[in-house]
Structure formats: structure tokens, C-alpha cells
UniProtKB/TrEMBL annotation:
<dbReference type="InterPro" id="IPR013344">
    <property type="entry name" value="RNR_NrdJ/NrdZ"/>
</dbReference>
<dbReference type="InterPro" id="IPR000788">
    <property type="entry name" value="RNR_lg_C"/>
</dbReference>
<keyword id="KW-0237">DNA synthesis</keyword>
<keyword id="KW-0170">Cobalt</keyword>
<feature type="domain" description="Ribonucleotide reductase large subunit C-terminal">
    <location>
        <begin position="164"/>
        <end position="702"/>
    </location>
</feature>
<dbReference type="GO" id="GO:0071897">
    <property type="term" value="P:DNA biosynthetic process"/>
</dbReference>
<dbReference type="GO" id="GO:0050897">
    <property type="term" value="F:cobalt ion binding"/>
</dbReference>
<comment type="function">
    <text>Catalyzes the reduction of ribonucleotides to deoxyribonucleotides. May function to provide a pool of deoxyribonucleotide precursors for DNA repair during oxygen limitation and/or for immediate growth after restoration of oxygen.</text>
</comment>
<feature type="domain" description="Ribonucleotide reductase class II vitamin B12-dependent N-terminal">
    <location>
        <begin position="52"/>
        <end position="143"/>
    </location>
</feature>
<dbReference type="GO" id="GO:0031419">
    <property type="term" value="F:cobalamin binding"/>
</dbReference>
<keyword id="KW-0846">Cobalamin</keyword>
<keyword id="KW-0560">Oxidoreductase</keyword>
<dbReference type="GO" id="GO:0000166">
    <property type="term" value="F:nucleotide binding"/>
</dbReference>
<dbReference type="GO" id="GO:0004748">
    <property type="term" value="F:ribonucleoside-diphosphate reductase activity, thioredoxin disulfide as acceptor"/>
</dbReference>
<dbReference type="InterPro" id="IPR013678">
    <property type="entry name" value="RNR_2_N"/>
</dbReference>
<dbReference type="Pfam" id="PF12637">
    <property type="entry name" value="TSCPD"/>
</dbReference>
<dbReference type="InterPro" id="IPR024434">
    <property type="entry name" value="TSCPD_dom"/>
</dbReference>
Amino acid sequence: MEKELSAKPMVNGKERRAGRSKGKAAATGLSVERFFTTLGVDPADELAWEYRSASITGEDGKAVFEQKNIEVPRSWSMLATNVVASKYFRGTPGTPERETSVRKLVARVVDTLTRWGSDGGYFATELDRDAFHAELTHLLLRQKASFNSPVWFNVGVEAQPQCSACFINSVDDSMESILTLARTEGMLFKYGSGTGSNLSTIRGSKELLAGGGTASGPVSFMRGFDAFAGVIKSGGKTRRAAKMVILNADHPDVLDFIRCKASEEKKAWALIEAGYDPSFNGEAYASVYFQNSNNSVRVTDEFMKAVVADGAWQTRTVREGQPLDTYRARDLFREIAEAAHLCGDPGMQFDTTVNSWHTCSGTARINASNPCSEYMFLDDSACNLASLNLMHFRDIAGDFDVAAFKHAVDVVLLAQEIIVGFSRYPTERIGKNSHDYRPLGLGFANLGALLMASGLPYDSDAGRNYASAITSLMCGEAYAMSARMAEKQGPFNGYAKNAEPMLGVIRKHRKAAYAVPQAGVMAELHAEQKAAWDDALALGEAHGYRNSQVTVLAPTGTIGFMMDCDTTGIEPDIALIKYKKLVGGGMLKLVNQTVPQALEKLGYPQTQAQDIVSALDKADTIEGAPHLRPEHLAVFDCAFKPAKGSRSIHWMGHIQMMEACQPFLSGAISKTVNMPSDSTVEDIEKAYLESWKRGLKAVAVYRDGCKRTQPLNTSKEAVKDTRKVEAAAVVEPLVKPEPRAVRRRLPDERRSITHKFSIGGHEGYLTVGMYEDGTPGELFIVMAKEGSVVSGLMDSFATSISLALQYGVPLKVMVDKLSHTRFEPSGFTGNPAIPIAKSITDYIFRWLELKFMPSEETEEDAILSPEPAAPTAQPALPAQSASFSRSTSSARATWLNQADAPPCHTCGAIMVRSGACYKCGNCGATSGCS
């Protein structure tokens, strides 16, 4: 029997290229090869299971979620357990209907998809149906793959569930259409999906209405859309609203659109300076518009060439296309960069590039994307996503298992295809386009971890080549599988009028695959990724394709936690040192688990590897570790610079990685290019220009610290250690006396240090007097060239701080309270340790922290570290350290890189960036759509 779904079918003991032999031409169902599973053995029974209690604690210490006696694979982490139980288990908590088992959760989804597949005629025989069920179960339980969140939310719960995470909605230039869009977006948010729209079809504010007067313009309507999203995000069934708003560069209101979010950001600053709550959900940001969407300007090659040539750019009326305003293209480009420098928006989408890779240009052009910019297709369409965990496709030797990966692509793509026909869609047009074009979004996660474990720097030609080859293999195999499905089920309905452009795009992909350099890529992978595109083209020419699109790179926020991924999507690792909250209080410090694997791959003996990991654990940086060769340092570079190190991945390295993967994706890549806080407007211009030159479809940048939000919990006192301590009994008085503060005066003769500073051109001097033990006890502030009022205020402020120090107020309390306060003067300082200050107060306390707090924290770590245990026969694992810490320099460095990230809407913990969105490492919530 022909095995059309096999990644590695065998004939007479020899491998045969899948799809080369037609076989069973008259059959409508597919044959499914068993690759991971054995006939008659339930994949769930091959795992060890245990019962756990899931619990998520908010920043206030109260339980946000709790469920006991949950059946979970023993290999799953506690974080994966918490995320799955809190996000994906259905049924009212505390009732018999509530799900209690990961085994049953996976069965709910797989059973439903298998039933749908049988009803849809996707399987040639019952044995193929059972093989599909077993193979998919294996992939999901072993954390090798996961569907997007709406599948876990809704499949097997509702008769006709909404399964897609990504939607693109059109809008016409009429009030009815505009209001219909608002309703459609609201329903999508309710069911946990995200949406994007291009508003360029709406007349500009300078254009006339038929009944007299002028149009409101798209920016005005954006206020209404934003308000709806803001209301729904806090009351949705599953998670926050996520949306993308796009405007073409030739729209009459493009300048208003570019400036709109930056203008609202300045209003928020004014409110913060007036004393309103600066947190992400506080009064300041809740009072301004456009905080619930990502904004992008869509530009053509014509526009970008005008920027390069310093040419003119013409905006045109929406209905008649008549010339309206003329701008200097560079001025508009500068406005885009300045706004992004100030608040992170707008991003850019490169229209010509997007449509040059469009498989269905015979139907209509691509105008928009989903909120995270990875799904780009026809208006009024939807895409269901799934991702593969790359770290689970390494063999024993640490090499990439090509055959296993190809088979996983085939099985998951078939599951996604089955979903299309049995899902519910919010509008009739989206339903029709979904059925007629059947776009899918298969992607991967854990690329950063895979590269490090393979001994390849993320920012290197070898690392990019490896990522390029894997992405190429995934997309080529997916299109080949789609062609095999088309042979049995027929191509998608819109294929006939799009055969020529689609085959043209496949040929472009194939050409790019043959151009992938081999440096850093194992021979089998390099050969197989080219062969996959040979199959994709040959099978497509013979049978067409079942799906118009097959791949994207999504942010993989929540599902990344479900798969226990160290890194999300295309991202590198954040840091080599990570921290895990303990239920009883405190934190567990862990060395990144990928580091020992990388050292082994690089050939270090176990004893040397242990020394390196121990040095990393002690110093919070791998720089300077014994035995580590200089040429290997780049392997361990991460997105954030460690507090005590100097290395991190340059922002151009992120763009180059996107460049390596983009030619092998149907859609685009969800990724924000994080830039350091001292990046200039010119840096952002360069990032946007290079992204266009390198063939990216979309790009967004984010300059760390540009938003003035402050985390809700930065001033919270450190969690006390909860270990039991034996202490002598103390007789408490019946009535406790009222505690009194006692002033500790400095000696008449004391040591001091004087520091000169400059903030935005305003110079001054800080003098700190110290006690005998070196701790600060008084502060003097002198501002140069300032009037008597400022001088008097500074003297009074310094006196207040001096008295606070002498009466025992911890410096840490004042640092937490007064760092990052904002008022003028602010700006560049010339101090490399504090390159930008938000105010004089901000600078003073960040300088005091750097100068006087590290020694205190070292003492804290020493106090809180557990006593060394007696030697045992089992040596300590080199991959982690059990030192407990209230606060460490590395943890603080991670926080500083995300100081303006929003707090989680579920538990209050500070989130971190995941692609173009945010994810919460405490409870698994995301702000995105996948």
C-alpha cells in the first residue's frame, strides 16, 4: 500500500522519496505512516504520569488560580502544568465538568480532529485513521508540537468551534461597514483571537462627503475601535484583545496616522507628571487612545526608493486617486522613525515585497496582516496556527533529526487542514475565503535554544544558515504535503485561477533553497531541504495544492510554555541566568539548561564544563569563565546584556536572522527588533531601511525604556525567605512599646566621594558622606548655573535624604521609590553606566544604587544561600544552582531591559516580549493572538 503521508517511506528496506509514485490515484483518503508510535500501543501509556496541584500566585501573594489533583506527564514542568490547567482546561472550576487531566485534554482535541478527519474523508482506511490519532497524540503529549490557543480553548467543547487565532478583516468607506468591523472585532476578541485591518479604504479627513462637509478620516474611527478593544480586553473569555491597524503611505491622513500614537504617548506623560498612576493599566494610559493596537505604515518599493533618492512623495484621495499633498519622502520616513523612537509605533510593512510572494494574486492583492504581522493574506480570511518544538527534534548525538521533523510536519499540517472545514468563522465572507483558499500557519519555536545547544551563535552566518535550512525544510515539506492532499482531496477552490502565480512563488522558494549556504548545516539537512522543494514543485505541478499558504513564524507565547520551550518563535534566549519563583517565597536561581548542552557540543570535557557553569552561576556572566575559549563566547550571547557582562546580540543580528528565514515562509515573522535605550532616530531609520533591503515583509522596533509605564511591583519589598530557622525563645512583653526611630549620626570626620554629572546639558555635583563601614549617611547636591529656587530645593531634598539615611531608611527602599521618576531636565548623561536619565532624581538614585547597593546584595545572597550540604556520592548537577535570592544583579538587569513592559492582566507579574507581543512567565498569559 502506498504511504503518501510518510516522511520516510520504505520499499524493500530502502528509502523512497515521498510522493514520487502516484499509487492509489482513485482513492480520496490519505495513508498515514506510523513513525513515532506502535500499532496497539497507546502513546499516552508510554509516558510516566503523576498528580499535581496547579497554582498561580499574583504579585500580591494571593492565589490567582488553583486546581488540585491534575494528571500530568512527569516530564512536564510545573510552569507548563500551571499554564495548561489555567488556560486550557474547560469547565467551571470546582464542578464535575471541570477537566483535570492533560491526557484527557489532548484526547479531547485529538479525538475531535480524528472524527472530523473521518467525516471529511481524509483517511484511506481505519488503520490510517488510527495511525493519525496515535501520531498526533504522541507529538502533543511529548511537547513536540502544539496548536494555537483557540484550538485548545474550543475544540471538543463547542459543536462548531472557532479554531483560528489570526484574522484579517476588510472595511469599506461606509458607516455601515465601519460599524460592522467594530462588531466583528469584538466577537473575535471574545473568543481569544486577534485581527488586523487596513483602513486605507476610508476617506481621509481632507476629503469631501457627498452630503456636504468633510470625512472624519480613519484616525478618528480608530479611537472608537480602540475604545471597544479596551473594554473587551478586560472581560474576554480567554485573553486580551489584540489588533493591527494599517494605513498606506499614500493615504491623505498618513501623517496624522504616523503621529497619532506618539501624540497620545505625550499626553500620558503629562498625566504621569501630574501625579496619575503610570502603570500599564493605570489612569494615565487608560485615559489616552491607541493603546490596544499595533500600528503599521504600509509602503511600496516606490516609496522606499524615493526615500533613498531623496525624492518627493504624493498622497492621493481615496475614491478618485487624485493627487493631494506632496511631501519629501525622507521627511515622512523620518516622522515614522521619530514616532517609533518615542513609543514603538508605527512599524512598517513592505507592500511590494509582500505581494511579490503572493500565491493568490489572481484573486486579489494582500492589504493587511494579523496583529503580530506573521499572517498576511487576502482580506476577510483566517488562519489556524501550530508550532513545532525544534529542541525535540535533536537525536542522541545532538544533530537535527530530519526524518522525524518531516513526518511531524506532515501530521500536523494534515491536522490543521482538517480543522479548516469544521471551524466556525465570524462572518460569511471569512468563512467562504477560508474554505476556498484554506491558508494554514505552521511554524516553529525554540530556535534560539536549538542554535545554542548546537554550538552555533545566533548572530553568525553558521547560525543563520542552520535556521534558514530548517525553515526551508519545514515549508518545502509542508507544500509537498499540501500537494499530496490535493491529489486525494483536490486543490483549494481558488487554485485554478491562481495556479500560475502560486507555482511561480514555489519556484522562488525553491531557488532560495538552492542558495542556502552549507556552512554550519549538516549535509543531510542541507540536501533534504532542497529535495523537499523539488517534491513541492513536482507534486504541485501534477496535482495543485490543497492550501494557498502553509507556514508563518508566530510568537508562540502560551503554547511555548505548554511545550516547555526555552525560547519563543524565532527569538534568541533572553539570558543565561533565569529565576524561578518558589511557592513558599524567594526565588530559585537556575543556569540556562542549554548551556551544558552547548558546552558538550563544543567538545569541552565534563570537568571543564562544570567549572564554566559554576563560574557563570557565581558571576552571572559567562565572560571570564575558566577554560572557555574566546571564539566560543558568541555562542552564549543573548538578547539582553547581563549586569556584569558586556555582550549581547546587536539589533542588526535580529534583522539578519529574519532575513535568513523569510524566503521560506508563506507569511511573515512575528518579531520586534529590540533596540537599546540609547538608540537614536537614525538607528531606527537604518533598521527600517535595512529590513526593506533584505527582503523582510514587515518589521517593528522597540527602543527599551521608550514607554513611561512603571511596573506595579517594583517598589514591593523583597519576599522574605521562608525556610525554618531555629531561634532561642524570646519572652514577649504583654504590651509592646511603640518603636522609635533612632538617629545614627556620622562621625565628625568622615570619608566622602564626589561625583560630577550632566543631564541634558545641566551639570551638577553629588557628594556622599559615609559611615565607617562605607555605607552612605548624607548627601549634598550642587547644581551649576541654576537659580536660587532650584538650589534651595536641591539643598532641602538632599537634607531630607540625609536624615532618612541617618534614621535607618534602607537605601534600597528609596532607590525603588525614586528611580525612574520623570521630569525635566532629562536626557543623555555621558555616563556609560546610566546613559539616559529621566530626571535628576532618577539619575541620583540610580547612581547611588550602582555605587552602594551591590555590596549589600552580595551580603544578602550570602545570608540567604543554603548551608553547604555534606558531601554525597552524587555530584551536584552543573546545570543549576540552588542559591536563593531576593534580588540579584542579573535579575535586576533583566528587569531593566523590560522596565516598561506591562504587568500581566491575569496575575500582575511583569511580562516580557514575545515576538511583537508580550508573554507572562508566571501564569502563561499573552497579549497576542497565537
